[in-house]
Structure formats: C-alpha cells, structure tokens
Design brief:
By secondary structure, the chain is of the alpha+beta class. It has nine helices and 18 strands.
Length: 519
C-alpha cells in the first residue's frame, strides 16, 4: 500500500523529523513505521489504492534492490485470461488481475526444484552459514553501520547470520503472508523487512539497512592459504640457504685457488731467483755475479722472514721489544759474495779441525727459525747457526761487499772488541736505526760459526781476541766466541737479551739484507 501510494523513504538524520523517515508527498506528512502512524495513514487516506501488498518473487535477490528514495508505481499489465472489454478496465480490475498474476508466479516458483535453474542454485543454500558447495568462499550477511564521518558495511554475528541465511534458503518471505519476520538474538528481538531489506530493534527502535554480502573466504580456506604460504616461505628460505651455502662454497674455492696461485707464483719467483743466482756459478763466472740481488715483493720469502722475525721476539719481552710484533718487510736483498764465502768456508774447516777430539764443547741452538734461509746446510757439530745483526742502511752495502770486520768494532763493547750478533730480533732492533714507530730499519741475516763458545759471567771490556779455554793451560787453545746469556751481571741491570760475539769476521757470512718498518 505504501509503494502504491508513493510513500518515500528519506534519511532524517540531523533534521527536525528525526524518527519519521516515511514521507507522503500527497499529504506533505512525515510518518513513522507501525500501526499507529504509517498504517493508519494509509488505511485512512489512501485506502483506494487497494489492500494488495506486493510480494517479492523468490528469484530476485534483495541485495540487488537498494532501498529507494522514491519508489515508482508499478505498471499494470492486463491478464490475457481476462476478456478485454470494449471500454478501458477500471483501476480495481487491474489490481485484481495483478494480484492473481503474482499469486500464480509465486506458486510456480515454489514448485520449481533448485537444480532446475541456475538462480535457484545460487539462492538455495543447504549450509546455514552461506558457505558455497565445494567452494572456498561463503556468503555473509552485513548491516550498514553509521560512523561519525561515513557509513560502512559490517559483518553480522554468526548466530544472526545463520538465522537470516536459513530464512533466505526457505524463500525469503515474511510470516503470515507479510514481508516481515522476527528473530531472537542475544536477549533482543529484531524485526526483518524482507522487501525493504531493513532490520530494526523492537526495544530501541534503531533501524539499519541489511544485505546479503558478496563471497568471502572461509576460515578453512584462509587456513589453507596460510599453510600454503608457510610452505612457500619455507621453500624460499630453503632455496635462499642453498644459494648462500653454494655461494660460501664458491668463495671458499676461489680463496683456495687464489692461495694456490699465490703459492705457485711465489715458488716460481723464488726458484727463478735461485736459478739466476746459480747460473754464473755454473758458467764458471763467479766474479761476474751481482753481489746484491733484489727480490720481488710477491716472493714468498717476504712472509716467511716476517713471521720468523716475530717468532724470534721472546714472548715475555715487552716495552720497546713489543714493536717487533708489528713489523712489515719493505725490501729483501740476497747477498752472493764469492770472496766472503771462500773466507767463511776456510774458517769453517779450521774450526772443525780445532774441535776434533776436544771435550766439553756445549751445543748452542738459535731462536731464529731456520726457514729464513731454508737452503742453508748448517753444521751443528761446530755450532753453526743463523743469527741477526742490526745495522743502519748505510752500513749494509759495506758489509755486503767486505763482510764483517772486527777491526772496525767499537772498543767500548761490553763483552770485548768484536762483532755482535743475536738470535732475538728485538735486540737487533736497538741497532737497526728504527728508534720509533714508523721508522725504517735494517737487519742482516747471517750464518755464524760459534765453535767452542765461552760463556760470559760479567763484562769483558778489555779483551780483543777470543778467551782461552783454560787460563791455566794455554795448550788447550782458545774459544771461538763469547755468549752473554740473559741474567748475566753487568755494571747496571742484568743482561736482558742473549748476545753472541766473534772476534774474527770470517766466522760470519751475510746471507740477506732485510729492510723493515715497525707500524
């Protein structure tokens, strides 16, 4: 009756007629829904429109029919079963024909099975929650909630959703031939208008538009998606870890190959240097040999000598000695002096003869690793060892060309006027010219024949030759060197480093000149 009478529904929020959303354009009145207001107005002033209420066909989906602001009056379709009179049918005759037609349509739709039409399949919902058969989606009912700034559709609770879905599956019509039915939920009674798609609370009178929302993923499908995403994430992480492991393996292989390449190049360079040094000897042109040969910076000897010098610094030495633990080699020169070598060989043979049959000769070992001169064949019977001699750069060329000369030694030597050596790199540092950090200095690595050494018990400033083996028996001969061990008493503090002194420069042969810097 309201539709036929042209009753309009208007949004009355913020207006003076709040709570009266129905407007009659003929009478210019705002009315509320219910028997005392809208219904009484219709029966009192618009009864001539007829008492046939419009029934919503089952095949039409309510959500596709938004609540109209102005509902147009339906067109009257004459029934073909009624004989058309010569004159135009009256209004009431048209209403009776329309009511009969709607009744037949409703009866026919109730007799059609759901599987006979695709629309019926969509509407028929055997599951109360609106879940589609063999689908990962479900249809959920929603209500229009008004916020401060805008309106938005929100999901209904599970109980209310199930109740509305159950009514939807039954055909979506009201009770007792009306468009309305009632639902009990959470201690409240709600009215549902099937045609206008409106829900209202009978106690508070609050009205809201409702609709059957679109498909939404089910909880089961969401869980399945989460499981699938977790599996994909694990697979990606596994692939990532596999790539990282492969990358680490490749890096390790590259590093190993680089080391092998460096070792090969170093060995080749070292071998080439040795062959270059030996070639003049093979051709009997020893005097043409270059005295000092510069080694390439990629030669393996650089790392070997650096590590050996660090190792030759005692672990219990600190202070100024600690600088040797931060040494870097800046240059290496191999000495090949035939004249000095011949004098060294002659002296070595003489010491061997001196020691034949001599008893009580102590054995002396060096703290300097023998790998600094891996090619050297040392004779332990005559205490032939590798030692270090600290000197300034201007003295290195003189020593390389003429060897060690005891005549040039200082007369103020604590253990006599001789040539001083040591097997502790931090002691040689004191005479290398590198007094401070970042200063450059020079060492000479030499072979040294100690023979029968004399162990100093104190300062020996007055001697210029080797001491006698036995002062009371000169026939036993002389010693070949003097050794001052750590702890030997001196004029001041006790001896800290071990020093080795010879009085004949032929007992030492300079092998290499080491240029270094302490950083």
């Amino acid at each position: 009756m309201a539709i036929k009478a042209g009753i309009q529904f208007e949004d009355c929020r913020g207006s003076s007629h709040t709570g009266n959303p129905f407007y009659c354009p003929h009478c210019h009145l705002y009315l509320n829904h219910g028997a005392p207001s809208l219904e009484r107005h219709l029966f009192s002033f618009h009864r001539h429109t007829g008492a046939v209420k419009r029934k919503l066909p089952q095949m039409l989906q309510p959500q596709s029919l938004p609540l109209p602001q102005t509902v147009p009056q339906p067109q009257m379709v004459p029934s073909p079963d009624v004989a058309v009179a010569a004159s135009k049918p009256t209004f009431f005759q048209q209403m009776e024909v329309l009511a009969k037609k709607l009744k037949e349509m409703h009866k026919h739709l109730n007799q059609v099975k759901p599987e006979e039409t695709s629309e019926a399949k969509t509407q028929a919902c055997p599951k109360p929650c609106g879940e589609l058969e063999n689908s990962d989606f479900e249809l959920r009912w929603e209500f229009l909630a008004a916020n401060e700034s805008h309106e938005e559709w929100q999901l209904m609770s599970e109980e209310m959703n199930d109740a509305l879905e159950k009514r939807w599956a039954q055909g979506w019509h009201g009770d007792n031939g009306t468009d309305e039915f009632y639902v009990q939920f959470n201690g409240h009674t709600y009215g549902i208008d099937c045609h206008c798609m409106v829900q209202w609370n009978l106690k508070t009178g609050r009205r809201r538009r409702i609709r059957r929302g679109g498909p939404r993923p089910t909880v089961k499908s969401l869980q399945a998606q989460m499981v699938e995403k977790d599996a994909q994430l694990k697979e990606v992480q596994s692939e990532k870890q596999s790539v990282l492991d492969e990358n680490a393996t490749l890096k390790s292989t590259v590093a190993r190959l680089e080391r092998e390449k460096a070792t090969l190049e170093a060995s080749m360079a070292d071998h080439g240097t040795q062959m270059k040094l030996q070639e003049p000897w093979r051709m009997n042109r020893q005097l043409e040999t270059k005295v000092c040969t510069e080694l390439n910076h990629w030669d393996a000897a650089f790392d070997v000598i650096r590590e050996a010098l660090i190792e030759a610094c005692p672990q219990d030495h600190f202070g100024n000695c600690n600088r040797m633990r931060h040494v870097s080699i800046t240059g290496l020169q191999q000495i090949c002096n035939i004249g000095i070598w011949k004098a060294y060989e002659f002296k070595r043979d003489k010491v061997r003869k001196d020691l034949e049959g001599r008893e009580g000769v102590p054995t002396v070992m060096s703290n300097l690793p023998s790998r600094v001169c891996s090619w050297a064949h040392l004779d332990a019977k005559i205490n032939e060892i590798l030692v270090i001699h600290g000197t300034t750069e201007d003295k290195t060329k003189e020593i390389a060309n003429f060897g060690f000369d005891g005549r040039l030694a200082s007369e103020r030597g604590l253990y006599g006027q001789g040539v001083y050596f040591t097997d502790q790199s931090c002691k040689s540092l004191q005479y290398s010219g590198a007094r401070h950090y970042h200063d450059s200095g020079c060492f000479i690595i030499a072979r040294l024949i100690l023979g029968h050494p004399h162990e100093a018990t104190g300062p020996m400033k007055q001697i210029k030759v080797e001491p006698l083996v036995d002062k009371d028996n000169p026939s036993l001969g002389r010693c070949h060197s003097v050794i001052a061990k750590p702890g030997t008493p001196t004029f001041g503090a006790p001896q800290v480093h071990r020093e080795l002194v010879i009085f004949d420069g032929a007992q030492a042969y300079p092998e290499m000149i080491v240029h270094f810097r302490c950083s």
